[in-house]
Design goal:
By secondary structure, the chain is an alpha/beta fold. About 30% of the residues lie in helices and about 25% in strands. The termini are far apart.
Length: about 260
């Protein structure tokens, strides 16, 4: 079994949930037409990311249900970045993975908050998400800054994931993360990395685009440029993951007695 994934690189409409969900629905239809079985949005795409005090009123529990309605209507799994109100107060920077029947398979709250922006808006998650299986492919997930720590991706690989899905809102001056670090993360843990970023300007942030899907050998399967809007599509094959781990001994040769 394989899984064909479409990543949506887009600027979105800051603070407009209806408009952003309409973009997701249109992208879902386009992705299905191109043979994709999953659509991935950027970080916090449903509401906007750098929207300050406008965020809290938009962080409602029904956002997940609205994404699920799109997934079931269009017949495609969706990973959507959205705010999640927490029972104890505060808002988590979250993602949900909804299957094509509208069922929630995975929810993850960003654990590594980046700078004053994240810390002023969000409370951190307290656990990595583990893995789930879709079409015979094992998936895990991270959000933006999380992927910049090698331990998070390594944990997904050790948990048997074939791919880690990474919605992101990477901004200037950090284009080098998208260009250079993502292929390294894929190579060092022999795992596919699906890195889906925003473009355009939101408040004082200029997003760098450069979404990509990296293979376990560090090669790029699909990519978009710094200003492109649209879909990038690639197929995740578990056999590619297994083959990479046979050829690259990093996971086997680790000296876990030392670290």
């Amino acid at each position: 079994m394989t899984l064909t994934i479409a990543g949506l690189q887009h600027e979105g409409v800051p603070g407009d949930v209806d408009a952003n969900l309409a973009i997701v629905a249109a992208a879902a239809r386009d992705a299905v037409a191109q043979g994709a079985q999953m659509l991935v949005t950027p970080e916090m795409f449903v509401t906007g990311y750098n929207i300050g005090e406008r965020l809290a009123p938009l962080a409602t529990p029904d956002l997940t249900d609205r994404v699920a309605t799109i997934a079931s209507a269009e017949g495609i799994a969706i990973v959507a970045g959205l705010p999640e109100p927490m029972p104890g107060g505060g808002i988590a920077n979250s993602l949900v993975l909804i299957d094509r029947h509208g069922r929630e398979l995975l929810r993850y709250r960003k654990t590594h908050l980046f700078g004053d922006l994240d810390r002023s808006l969000f409370v951190p998650g307290d656990a990595l998400p583990g893995t789930v299986e879709l079409h015979g492919v094992r998936l895990s997930a991270l959000i933006c800054y999380d992927v910049e720590f090698p331990e998070t991706v390594r944990a997904a690989a050790l948990d048997g994931a074939d791919a880690v899905i990474v919605p992101t809102a990477q901004m200037e001056p950090y284009a080098h993360i998208a260009e250079r670090l993502i292929p390294v993360r894929a190579w060092e843990s022999q795992i596919h990395v699906v890195y889906v970023n925003r473009v355009g300007v939101e408040g004082d942030l200029a997003y760098v685009g450069r979404s990509s899907i990296a293979a376990p050998d560090g090669t790029t399967l699909a990519a978009l440029g710094p200003h492109d809007t649209g879909l990038l599509i690639a197929t995740i094959d578990p056999e590619t993951t297994r083959s990479a781990r046979r050829e690259n001994p990093y996971l086997h040769d680790r000296r876990t007695d030392l670290y």
